[in-house]
Amino acid sequence: MATERELKLALRRRDAARIRHHPLLSDYPHQVEHLHSEYFDTPDGALRNAGVALRLRCGSAGWVLTVKAEAPDRGGLTARAEWETPLAGRELPTDFAFVEDCAIRLLLQRVQPTLTPILTTRFRRDTWTVPAVGGAIAVSLDVGTIAAGNDTLPLCELECESLGASEEALWALAQRLAESVALWPEPRSKAERGQALLAGTARQARKSRPVRWQPDLPAGEAFLASWFEIVAQAGTNLSLYALTYDAEALHQLRVALRRARALLRFCQPLLGKADTEYWRDRLGAIARQLAHLRDRQVLWQEILQPAAQGCPVAQHPLLALAQAYAPNDRTHLPLPYRALGQALIAATPQWQARLAAAPLAQTPVQELARKRLKALARRVRRRLHAWKATPELPMMHRVRIALKDWRYALEWCAELLPEKEHAKAYARVRRALDLLGAAQDWASASAILERHLRRQDEHALAAAVTLAWQHPRLVLPAEAMMPHLLSWFEVKDDEGKNDDGEH
Description:
Blueprint: E1 2-10, H1 16-20, E2 30-41, H2 46-50, E3 52-59, E4 62-69, E5 77-87, H3 102-111, E6 116-132, E7 135-148, E8 151-163, H4 167-177, E9 184-185, H5 190-199, H6 219-244, H7 247-266, H8 268-271, H9 273-310, H10 315-324, H11 329-332, H12 337-357, H13 365-389, H14 393-412, H15 419-452, H16 458-474, H17 476-480, H18 482-488
Antiparallel strand pairs: 1-5, 1-8, 1-9, 2-3, 2-6, 3-4, 4-5, 6-7, 7-8
């Protein structure tokens, strides 16, 4: 049995030539292959359900059959068991004797009569062998397509596979490559993307998936579990947005960045104040670059189009203004692929190294969570009182940010709190964030619309109609939420300075 240890990164197809001519790779042996692969499973997905991939590939070495076991993704890095054997042709064996894992071998033997090709990949592979501490790294650029059913998906990815090299060497090489080419972690294998094509979900944005900390889980492991999920959400949606410019993918990318910053704040005692503040600021700067794109999409999709449907008298000018903000190539250019990819690639190995030596890393996460939840509640309460004293939009936005941190903390700590207490608090904060989020979206949209009022054309009419029609629907409910929030967070505990140093 071999263990495949590789770091998988995505990139845009337009950047493939920059990898092929990258100065870090040009001095090393370079091979080019054209590969055709078929993946097999049963009609009911027995291998997929068992976390097993069966691949038959044809390349310069002839036919090779590979069996891979499922492995968790760790920020784009995976280490999985695999077994390979050469074949004389396309006919699958009946005994799978080359597979050393008894359970997997018996499964393959049992389902062999019903195995059928479910997806194919065709791509050009450029491979460089780069020396590294302990061995070498095989850097493979794959450009082609994944096909399943009647659908296809473009394929463009970079794999850095260890040939004896350490994980630290993989990350180090990826960071150097990402300095000049936009690369980001890709959590999904080719087989997983093909399965998504079959299921019709390949072009759906990836929402965050529950990571619920158990009381006795070491704090370091709890942090990494949540961090890897955040990187997976960010990487998947960045890949989708690069391919389709999907508005929901952009939204979920921003959610991933917010969750990352909330996680860093929550785990600051574990990771250190200086580093967490540096990474929160770095990710925050990237998130602000995405805000302009998101504001345009919200204006188009959630403000102008509903107004056109609700105001038939002014429908023509409203539709004309909506068309002016419809997604197009020009609005997609500012997305900071390289900056975001660099951050995700650099942060993951730093946190792993930090936690290997952190004094609190082995402390049960429940001990950390108890203090941090109190600190977050105090922070929400202070901002609520500031909003009450100054009921203006910037103060409401600060409350919304604190409530988001509180919501994410409740998700991670679901198993650490009494069930009824958690359910009640989570339902309340979701309702509040829905209202405050709509008000914030409206504030951003109205700032854009007000600029159109100076014009003497149908856009000015459309902007005036939208401003009048949407305001009571989006702003007044948020303002009515303030007294409820004040009562929810008026909990008696220690006042003063919280663990983040805020007053």
